[in-house]
Amino acid sequence: MTMREVTATEFKAKCLQMLDDVDAEGIVITKRGKPVAKLVPMAPSLGDLLGLRPDMLVEPGDDHLSTGLVWEAELPADPTVRANLIAARKAMRHPATR
Questions:
Q1: What's phi and psi for 68, nearest 5 deg?
Q2: FRET pair for 79, CA 20 to 30 Å: which of 38, 46, 55, 96?
């Protein structure tokens, strides 16, 4: 199948209709017989695809990218509280065996 070509003059006169009719192959726009642009439909973005599968819905406020760990930069400035939280985190990662 040959890609459709139109002159810049024709595109200017019919651009709104061409935007509605553009197919996956696109339309080449020429000026003085040389291709200068190509009109192609937009591919769906990731944002458009989110929510297409009900089991993949993301609720606002969900921390779906979190590792669940607290960064040291997010810990309180108080050295005693900070040390206790770090010790508790280490204990959770390496529980003592009985």
A1: 85, -5
A2: 96
